[in-house]
Amino acid sequence: MSLLLPSRRSISLVAAGLVAGVLAGTQLQAMATAYDYTAGHCDIGLGYTSGTGSGSGPRLYLQFGGDAVATGLSSSQLTAGEPGGIVGEWSTSSFVTVVPQSVSLLRPAGAEWDFLGTPAGQPVWVFGQNSQAGVPFLGFNTEKAGGGTGTFILASVLTRPTDGQVSLFQIGGFGTTTVYWSSAEPGVDELTVPAQTHAHYNFGFTKPGYYELHVSGTGSGFPGQATGVLAFQVVPEPSASIAAVLAGLLAGAFLRSRHRHLTGRARLWPAA
Predict the structure, then answer these.
(1) What is the rounded CA–CA span in Å between residue 233 and residue 208?
(2) How far from chain centre, in Å, is Cα 19?
(3) What's the rounded Cα separation, in Å, for the pair 93 and 31?
């Protein structure tokens, strides 16, 4: 992972991970900071372990496919011979899903797209239902959910950029759209996945920036509820090396022009 300057993002994810771990009582991989998940397959899983000991009960977790790409992991956390090979289950707050500029689309006209939460003609970053090279292929999984269906609920959006909206939807074979989550439409917040299934849907975001989603999970085959935080960075943030170069250039300009105001500013986000 590119070294990033300390940010509210990493601090809030650490806190979220600690809370989720205490609530779930699970033995998921523990991380001191969040790593970037940038491409390949990953599932948001709902699982259940019977019993009363440590690690028992319901849990939300991330589990990666062999082609997944995530930066900053050590060799002990990878399986040799696979492109990604990220081993085991991970807490949902261990990774930030990085959504690239390449998935930006313009919102179509028509009231059926109002759930996206942005006017027609405005950019929306959409990914997840179909596999794309260099893009996260993020799905949902109930294969460890005690043999029953799993329900994933968008409880709240904890963090988002100004005017940022989040949605989860699926486009059928005949072009019909089914909406499961929409932060722009109260009450549209529930996805039920059949038993022993892994499935993919479109995630939609209306603004570049950092998002944290508080998600809960329940299953028809077990008691209780699991909770977790899913983090997304829509359009990658600049690395510390780029930030340092920009800071150096600005500092030099300030020293050379102490009595003048700097009128320009660095462009941190690509144009939609």
Answers:
(1) 8
(2) 18
(3) 8
Summarize the chain as % helix, strand, coil (round to 5): 20, 40, 45
Q: How many CB atoms lie within 10 A of CB 17?
A: 23
pLDDT at residue 228, as a whole number: 97
Is 187 within a domain? yes
Distance CA(118)–CA(112), nearest Å, equals: 12
pLDDT tens digits, one per residue of 199-250 = 999 999 999 999 999 999 999 999 999 999 999 999 986 654 344 444 454 4
Q: Are 46 and 58 in contact (CB under 8 A)?
A: yes
**Domain span at 255:** 239-272
User: Do the beta carbons of residue 13 and residue 231 sit within 8 Å?
Assistant: yes
Q: How far apart are CA 165 and CA 157, in angstroms?
A: 9
- In the chain, the number of structural domains is 2
List, for residues 116-153, the tens digit of each pLDDT value.
Answer: 999 999 999 999 999 999 999 999 999 999 999 999 99
Residue 33 sits in the same domain as residue 77: yes
Mark whether 142 and 266 lie in a shared domain: no
The predicted model gives 164-172 an average pLDDT of 97
Residue 254 near residue 238 (C-beta atoms within 8 A): no
Residue type, 267: R
**CA distances for 147 relative to 48, 51, 111, 220, angstroms:** 9, 16, 38, 8
Q: Which residues pair with 117 in a beta bridge?
A: none
Residues 127 and 245 occupy one common structural domain: no
Asked if the structure places residue 3 within a domain, the reply is: no
pLDDT at residue 259, as a whole number: 37
